[in-house]
Amino acid sequence: CICSSFSSLNADIRAKCLGNIMRVDVGPLGGNNTAIVVTPSIAAQCGFSMKSDSFGNALIYISLQNCFAQNVDDELFTTALQLRLQGNQFSQEEVYQVAETCQYDVWASREVICDYNYMEVSELRSSCPLVSDMQKRSMDAGFKATTIVFFTPEGKKPMSLLAAQQRGYGIGNTPTRLVLRSPMIAPETFMQTIMGVPMRIFKTSTIFEKKWLATQIDAAAACPIQEGNTITWYLPWQMDPMTSSGQFNLLEVHFGINGQKLDAVEMQAREYSVALNDFYIVTELPIGGVGGYYESHIQGDLYYVSYMIEPMLELLWTEDATHEQTRYKVFFHITTHLLPQPLELIDNTVPGEKMFRMTLGHFAADVALMNITFPAEVLSMPDCSARGFNILEHMSPNTSLKVFTLQVPFADPAVLQQTGEGVTVYSLHLTFGLLILDQLVSFSHKAYLEAVVQDIVPPSVSGGCDNHNFYVLVKYGSPGYNFQTMVGKRYMTPSLAQHYDSMENGTHFSFVVPFSAPDVAIEASSTRSRLDIVLSNPETNSQIQELSVACNFPSTLTECFPNGTMTALALKLESVPLLNPSQLTLADPSCGPVHSDDRYAFFVFTVNSCGTTRKFMTNVMLYENEISLPDELLMKKSPTSEEPEYYLKISCFYDINTSQTVAFNTRLRRSEPYAENSKGQLQVVMRLALDDSYSAFQNYEEYPLAKYLQQPLYFEVELLKSANPLISLELENCWATQGKDRTSQPRWDLIINGCPNPADPYQVVFHPVWTDARVGYPSHFKRFEIQTFAFADGKDDMSTKLFVHCDIVICDSKNPLGGICGGQCSNPKQTTKGEMDDFSFGVLQHSGDLICLRKD
Ligand SMILES: *[C@@H]1O[C@H](CO)[C@@H](O)[C@H](O)[C@H]1NC(C)=O
Ligand SMILES: *[C@@H]1O[C@H](CO)[C@@H](O)[C@H](O)[C@H]1NC(C)=O
Ligand SMILES: *[C@@H]1O[C@H](CO)[C@@H](O)[C@H](O)[C@H]1NC(C)=O
Ligand SMILES: *[C@@H]1O[C@H](CO)[C@@H](O)[C@H](O)[C@H]1NC(C)=O
Ligand SMILES: *[C@@H]1O[C@H](CO)[C@@H](O)[C@H](O)[C@H]1NC(C)=O
Ligand SMILES: *[C@@H]1O[C@H](CO)[C@@H](O)[C@H](O)[C@H]1NC(C)=O
């Protein structure tokens, strides 16, 4: 095929010769509402058909033997077209000239074209059965077609050529051929089902006359007609109306799309298949496949598409009897029924991106998005671009349908915002204004989008404590809010969490830290413990929240026992991080802790040891000691060390009345030694009993008493005003003097160091004391008996006075400490501690036989 083509300036118009037809492509016209005005009846009559492809471009199919072709010897066919493109409101009408010459010289005896709007049959005139063989040549010269006879189911219908042309039939005479053309739906055509396939039949006889001679040419075409959404196309390949004998050979079968033949590889790639069975050529075409296209329709506000494709079959057969060849070409325009294509807005929004993303589809290629209506305004496409909505068109893969995508930032004024309950709800109402370009039909689609964004809430921590533990509750923040938890100076690890009995329930986690845990800091007062919790961002390490829980440590650091033992627990303070507790000592540096580790030192000592000092206060005794680093260790420290020294003062109060103990601790700076200055008072009484029953006593007023020599004197010494059963009164020394002064001479010892004077001829007799109505605590009493005597060197006085004195010791019976307190008469030489008082009694020797005593 030798083709020449001309295209005008603006539109891309190309003509193509495709065997016995030519095709003119006019494009691209997609964006503009462009229509080519071709009168349908002229098209059908003259061999034109016009279609648009999936991009809206026009395809004009033109039979080479069309009414307007310039035919040179049935080999070169030139067709000139004037295309009038109707512009839209913005453009003016444009006129294009197209002319194309196609060469075609392989004419079969009969050529049939089935297009969607016409059937064409072209017969070689020389091959027509002639009235007589010898007139064969002369037919070319002078025969003229006069009448056309249509064969219909109702019978023969003859018609003059002129009348037939007026009814829309095309009749052409070329040098060698007769061309008949019928619109697809013409009154003289009829439906016939051939092997189950509906076909339109056009069957004629054309009468040629020349003077008295007449001849006729039969011409028939059978074309499949489109049937809804049939996408399996059955074409019978034995079409009786077109064959004179029944026997013929099918030589070639070609398949094509839009008039263009495809080879096997292309067909497979496009998933087309053509198969031949006993009766049919079966063509299978996938709906939506390449080569076809969709068209939009609006019916009752709903969106539909129909799929269109135009397969072509070209067959070549020979009739056995005549050896005549028939080339048969069918364009089968398939349009499916309307397929509902519900519009769908797919919300692809990822709230974190702060932008609505959506996809609207699916549409045929002939739909344009014109504008978007928001509650407050209507935006055209340029407006939307200016607002950054980024509207794009995408061809959907393997469906030949397209979608629109767009984005609307949450910050755009068209987006509504509502906040509350920890979330922000973004919503967008929009109505898409759409237009079907070819038909200028408007339609719209409403959509509503909503995105809920959790407000970013940081994690938080709270806590408290009881007598034993710190309790910490951490509340997670918004999902995805990462944080790390630091307990004291350590990061919370899974193993530490397990150690602290961590529990987790999806929104919170909690853990329990004992007071004794190493992550707990002891504040300087050492009775307050503090737990620090820090939540921080793991990437930036920036602090999110800090919590310090401080509670008084209720456990006893110092204990005071009634037996005079003190214990003290010295804890390492956070302010003295380098302290080694094992190096701590009491005031006496030789008294170290009984046990210690890196966090504490534990001391046990008695109040009378380790440098403990004692103070007397009203009704209480205060024992104090201190825990610190020994001086030699302090000396070793660098002088620039800022570390405060460790100094813990410990004290015990002993209530004198009740022996209850109170313990407290104070921490003071090093202070001057306390000057001890105290005075005790004990009331002790010594009396003379009337007899050894010790039930009645001499009255004070009766002194001095008169006694005879060797008359027994029953003495009793009592500690008054003490209810303490644990103390005892012991007699250390007792002696007699002549004078009132206890140190005067002469003197006679009665009891020495608790024991009777061994030199005494009439030794002191001790009487035991038993509990009775008067005696509550026998240990508070001592009783002894002596015999009245007189000093030998006494003058011959009518009356000699005798004074008796005693030193007494008050002992702690639980802590006797030996000496007098260890028991009467145990170790005569040992001196003892104890309060001492003396009592003087006068003994009056009257006439040598009367002794008078009185209290001094
Ligand atoms: C529509 O026609 C106008 C005027 O001829 C032209 O400027 C414009 O580019 C056309 N649009 C498309 C999509 O072809
Ligand atoms: C599109 O084609 C691919 C590959 O041929 C196939 O896997 C996919 O299922 C097709 N999608 C649809 C919607 O037909
Ligand atoms: C929006 O586009 C639609 C479809 O073309 C049209 O019918 C409607 O009038 C347009 N609205 C405005 C306000 O321009
Ligand atoms: C998790 O524990 C916390 C604290 O006990 C409680 O307030 C919260 O309701 C619990 N959450 C769930 C989902 O059980
Ligand atoms: C003092 O009493 C405490 C507590 O009862 C006891 O542990 C300690 O051994 C006693 N000390 C002496 C020296 O008896
Ligand atoms: C201790 O004795 C004094 C003097 O007898 C008295 O005033 C005080 O109330 C007593 N204290 C107690 C706690 O019994």
TrEMBL record:
Q: Which domain of life is it from?
A: Eukaryota
Q: Which residues form the signal peptide?
A: none
The ZP domain extends over: 559-828
UniProt keyword Disulfide bond, yes or no: yes
Sorted alphabetically, which keywords does the UniProt record give?
Answer: Disulfide bond, Glycoprotein
- What would be one Pfam family of this protein? ZP-N
Q: Which PANTHER family match?
A: SI:DKEY-19B23.11-RELATED, ZONA PELLUCIDA PROTEIN
Q: What is the protein's given name? A: ZP domain-containing protein
